[in-house]
Amino acid sequence: MFNKSIRNSISLTLAQMRKFSKGKEKLPDLRLRLLDLDLTWKSIEVNSSACCKRLNEVFGKELSLAQLNIITIGMLSSAIRGSIETNKVLSWNIHEGVEPNEVISNLLVQTFDYSLSIINLLGNGQDVPAYTLMRSLQELCWIILTISYDRERMEQYCKLKDSEKPEEIWYKYFRPVKLKNSLKKLEEILEFPEDLMLELHSKRERSYRIYSNFSHHRYQGSLITSLERSDLFFTSRDVSDKTFKILDSLNYNLWYLIQALIKIFGEIHNWQDIEYSELWLITITLKECASKTFFVLYEEEMEIARGKVT
Question: pLDDT band for position 229 (50/70/90)?
Fold first, then answer.
C-alpha cells in the first residue's frame, strides 16, 4: 500500500511503540503490524468495489440517467467553447479579456467534475460527502443559469477576479437567496406554468435545506451514516434509500440545468447553430435523450408510488 520511505517510517514508529508498551505495566503488548495496515486498506478497496457493484444492481436506471446527463453536460461545454470561433452563443461584450462563452463552458466542466465525483462517492458508499457536494453542485447550476441570462450578473461575476471587495459583490448578487430569486425571474421570462414554478421553488428550498445540514455539519447531518453501528469504519458500506435520494437529486439538477440553459440560448439570446454544427446537433440530440429518459423514469416512479398508496 505505502511506498518504501513511508513503509520504513511506519515500521520504525511501530517498533518504537512496541518498546514503549512493553515498558509500561498496565499497557497490553502492541501487536499491530505493517501487514495489518495493508490488509485494512485492501478491505476498504474490496468493500468499495462491492458497493459500486450494488449501486449498479439496485439503482441501475437512476445511475444510467446520471451517466447520460453527465455526458450531455460535457458535450454542451465543448459545443459552447466551439461556438466562440464561429457563432457565439452569448454575444455580449463584457470588459476586456473576458469571454462569457468561455466562462459558461468552464463552469460546465466543473459541473461535470462535481457530478462525476458524486457518482464515485456513491459507488464507495460515502453518502454524506455526496450530500455535501450536492449543495455545491446545486449552487453552481444556479450560478450558470443566472449569469447566462442576466448580463449585469455576468459582468459582476467576472469582476470578482480583480475586485478589492469580492465579498460585497458576492453578497449582493450571488448568495443563495439572490440566486433562487434569479431563477424565479428566469422561469417567469421563459413563461413556465405557475404550478410548475411553485413546484420547482418548493423543491429547491427543500433540497437546499437538506444539503446545508451536511455542508455545515449540523446535528441532523451527524445522525446519518453509511455504516452499521457495530461495524468498523472500513467495512459494510452499502447503498440505501439515501443513495437513491442523492441520485434522484443529481438527475433533477442536471436535467433542469440542461433544459433551462438550452431555452436561455434560444429564447433569450435568439441563438441557433444546430443547422450548421455537427457538434451542436449531437449536443441537442443528447439533450432530447436526457429529457425523455428523465420523464420515463419519473413516470415509473409515480406508478410505483401510486401502487403503494392503493
Answer: very low
- Short-list 214, 74, 70, 220, CA closest to 133: 214
At 69-85, the pLDDT tens digits run: 999 999 999 999 988 88
Q: What's the sign of the alpha-carbon dihedral 304, 259, 177, 196?
A: negative
264 close to 186: Cβ distance less than 8 angstroms: yes
Give CA 37 to chain center in angstroms. 32
Ordered by start, the domain boundaries in the chain are 54-309
**Alpha carbons 267 and 258: distance in angstroms, whole number:** 14
C-alpha cell belonging to residue 153: 450578473
Question: Rounded distance, CA 72 to CA 115, Å?
Answer: 12
Whose CA is closest to 119, among 239, 295, 277? 239
What is the average pLDDT score of the chain? Answer: 84
In this structure, what C-alpha cell is assigned to residue 93? 461584450
User: Could you report the per-residue pLDDT of 164-202, keeping only the tens digit for each?
Assistant: 788 888 989 999 999 999 999 999 999 988 888 888 888
Q: Look-up: residue for cell 455526496?
A: 130
Ordered alpha helix ranges (H), the chain: 4-22, 34-58, 60-83, 100-123, 127-149, 151-159, 166-173, 176-189, 194-215, 219-222, 241-263, 278-309
